[in-house]
Amino acid sequence: MKSGRLLISILLGGVATGTLLVVALWIWSEVLITRTYPVRPEAASAGSPALAAEGRRLSKLYGCTSCHGADLQGKVYNPNPRLVRNYAPNLTLAAARYSDEQLAQAIRQGVRPSDGRALWGMPSQTLMHLTADELSTVLAFIRSHAPAGAPTPPESAGWRARAAVLAGALDEPRRVARARSRPAMDLGPELAAGRHTARTVCSECHGSDLAGDDLEGGPDLRVVGAYDAEAFTTLMRTGVPPGGRHLGIMTLVARSDFKVFSDAELAELYAYLSARATRLNEAD
Question: How confident is the model at residue 2 (pLDDT cuts 50, 70, 90)?
Fold first, then answer.
């Protein structure tokens, strides 16, 4: 009888301890979710309306319209309640209340300019590399839209999202800081244009150093060394690699967004990535 009571006491104690731990982790995750970051000044201004068409193309390449919608009125892009029910905000409404500098702060720093809270899912670790002209062109595209539509609902974090927050995985300002410390290989001025494209487009899924990203699932782009220029161009325009297999998100993104790459951009990107692969292979 006494051993039975002892077992029950141990079990109840374990349940109570586990409950307290879960509550403590939930509270701490909420602290991390709601914390704020310093918002740094940004020198930015929207280009002329004549740049809106090119801004649309760049917004396609950078994935802006994939998340915020072709009309920029926002949409849900992760409906999984176990992770995070995440809505990309309505940019037409955001642009109506934010200055060009504030929009640049959101894009490049991954923070809400109004209060400094992290913007979940904003790929600022990639977009921080935009040149002043590229950012100005994207802002011209955003500014070409009059306010329309309804505000999107706020995100709602599930347990998996909170676990990711506790691990630092969904903290965009921290991801920006990590990306700065892990730059893509610099192979000199001759390959600088391709490196820039890799940093502003490819690094979102393949990591800031292009060596792969466990969170996003992109492999080390060293794999480009196995492609010739023609096969690489086919992959980037159709999402189909040699052998014809489906590459998941790469296939989908190539078909939806990468089709707007110019021939010159693809040639520059291939030149850089293939040279990077050669350099890495030589170092082994």
Answer: low
